[in-house]
Structures are given as C-alpha cells and as structure tokens.
Amino acid sequence: MKDKDICAEIRQLLFNDVPNTTGDIHILFGKFAGTFLISVWTGRFRKRRSSTFSPGIPSKLAGLVKDLKVFYLENEMGDCNVMHYVC
Description:
Elements: H1 3-17, E1 25-32, E2 35-42, E3 49-50, H2 57-74, E4 82-86
Helix pairs in contact: 1-2
C-alpha cells in the first residue's frame, strides 16, 4: 500500500466516524515508550471540539499509522514518532 492510499484510508475513517464537522479534522499520533496516543479535534486547537471514536476505530487508525511509518522507513523518508494530519 502506498502512502497516499494509507492517508486516504485514515481520512475516510475520520470522516465516517466524525460526520458532523464543518471544518478541518486534525489528528495527532504519538508513540512514546511503547505507548501509542491519538488525539483528534476539529477547528482551531484552542477552540477545539473533541470527539469519541466508535469501538475499533483507534486500533484501525493505529494500524494504519504503523503501516505509514513502515512505508516511510522502507523508502528512506524518515523515522518519526509524532504525526499530525489535517483532513
């Protein structure tokens, strides 16, 4: 799977799970000491509206981000522990 395909799947999961948004959806992934963190908000960070995921969505997102990290490493595009997406 290519990076564009992985990002498109992440975007589709977010739009399906947070359907009532009028602005951008931000998602921040972080991997720290074996812990995987996900934060999602809409609008500006200081005036954000948080959302709760449906069951299974966080693990799907985590798997996609891990796939993206593997893609980046295999294609010598860097090794990152924090990723921020805006959909």
